Amino acid sequence: MPTDLSRYDDWLAWLAATGESDPDVLCIWVGGSAATGGYDEWSDLDLDVLCTPGTVNDVYDRLLTRIRADFDVDHVWELPLSAWPDGRQCFVNHAPDPGALTAPTRIVDLHLSDLSDEHRHVDVRRHGTPIVIHDPEGLVVLRHDDEEALQRSIEEAVDQIAQRTATSEWLVNRAIRRGQAAEATQFYLAFGFTPLVRLLRVKHCPWRHDFGLRYLHTDLPADAAERLTALLPGAGDPEELSSACFTWTRELLRERA
Known about the structure:
There is one protein chain. The protein has helices at 9-21, 33-36, 56-70, 117-120, 124-127, 147-177, 181-204, 216-219, 222-229, 238-256, and strands at 25-30, 45-51, 75-78, 87-93, 107-114, 121-122, 131-134, 141-142. It is an alpha/beta fold. Strands 3-4-5-2-1-7 form a six-stranded mixed sheet.
């Protein structure tokens, strides 16, 4: 079934009109959960906009000025210029307190990039099938990412996990034994739990091996996701959680050896 984006109908109409009226806006599509699945009343609207090369900053300024004039905007979170070397991003909030979840979410994640092959090629395994709003020149191409580069990235990540597992376990357990709960939690997440998630992603959904803790309920088998949930900080005795986490990590590493 197509995703119901009706609460953003005003935005979709505005974007279609913007694509027709701004010659530097070459392509617009909706991604995120609307494209990958899991879209619900708390989902934002994830937008990708491709611009004439070299114009992304000017287009961003023009669009944001128009957005503030045409919509009831409460506030905007603008990411710093350093966030993207050839793009801009902001989050447009229509409510002052979206975290209260008292009404369906109205947040727009607007990401602009200069047109390039990298940006116009979409791997549906990672990002879902884009919902195209404006693309008169057929610039959006559905194509898997380079498999050799993917494998290199995976092998490098796995190798790093394998090299540091013993040191990682020492860092976690040392903090636990010292009674340093905050440090132990940070180390456990960074050096224990998150690398375990990476290995499980490599096994079950390698094309999204670098997605971290997001989408675990859809990217992993139900039993693996449930087992991971039982290892979250606070779910049990810290030493027992650490032992179970690193034992599972070593099992997965042995499978790949």
